[in-house]
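Weekly structure sync - notes
Attendees: PM, LS, DV (DV joined late)
Agenda: review two folding runs queued last week.

Item 1: First target. Sequence and structure tokens pasted below for the record.
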Amino acid sequence: MTRVGRARIPTSGAESGRALQGSRGRSGLTLVSTWAVAVLASACHLPSDEQPEAWIEIRGQRVWLEVADTPEEQRLGLGERDSLAWNHGMYFEYANPGFYAFWMKGMRFPIDIIWLRDDHIIDLDLNVPFEEGGNGPTLRPRELADAVLEVPAGTATALGWRIGDSVKYERVRAN
């Protein structure tokens, strides 16, 4: 266990289970479970104009998406935003496979760029940095891509995404 002030924070799943079952037993576990459900439910309740337009699933993990449909949306991408929620991303779909260039103009936070073709990951650019006041790097896939996914930096690594992984995409509402 790691000590933080006077509290003891479990550092492994086994310790976590023991900590919850200590003197509180099931009531502690119930309290934590109830709190977790409440937090998740409140995070999922968004105004209707902010509801996700689509989702993508990779390795059993679903990410909620905004879809950049128009040339203007595709040009701006995630630029001019301060952040992006952990399980959210932006999806760019193209009619024909190509070596589409992506840059970090106007970005205020780092991202992972996931290059897709035929419902598979074909390339990854991880932890792409932003440059304040600059354009940052311009990136292209190593192979032709027909779609691109942008997610917060660290997402692909944390979820174990790899080149070759299959991808399931579904549109849930029009823009």
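Item 2: Second target, run right after the first with the same settings.
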Amino acid sequence: MEATITNHQKNVSTFIHLSTFSKWFFPFGNFIAPLVLWSAQKSKSAYIDKNSREAINFQLSMLLYLIIIAVITIPFVVYQAIKYDGSTHIYWSDHLHANGDASGLSGLLIALIVSGTLAIGLTLFEIVTVISAAIKASKGESYSYPLTIRFITDNAVDEIHQTTTEEPAQTAGQASDNSTQTTASANTKNDSDKTNDDIVL
């Protein structure tokens, strides 16, 4: 990472973190916006590259956690809904009344409340951590999101950069070898011509 982080790098990194909130305005904006910015800026700054990977990895992790909550909750809700056969009647008269077996309904409500609480808690956690990351980035400090799975690793990016760097180096090396061979051939030819001149003399 750079020894000196410029204001431009801080501003771009901050905007990358905050761009994940664009999901509230268009679908998958939390992935599209930081990916576009990362693609445009990652080769220009290691600091921007790191912040971009942190933001994208965190969003992927949050999506995975929400999917896990849904996978666990939906079958239970469906089961409770089937179990609740409509024999329970709920009405309001001064206060809430229920006639019949409300066990199925109570289980359904508990499942919805628990899953909703987890989803809301995860969303609030995401908002707080993204704002924290943006504040750190604006100060030029490093920030690692908690509870984040490293889908995009440092090694994978380094390998891409290394491959990109090695290709020009190999081309330059081949050009140097060709130049050396050409020079050697020219020297050999000059020596041969000189020998022929000596023989003629």
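Discussion on item 2: Helices lie at 7-18, 29-41, 46-83, 103-138, 154-200.
Action: LS to circulate a short write-up before next sync.
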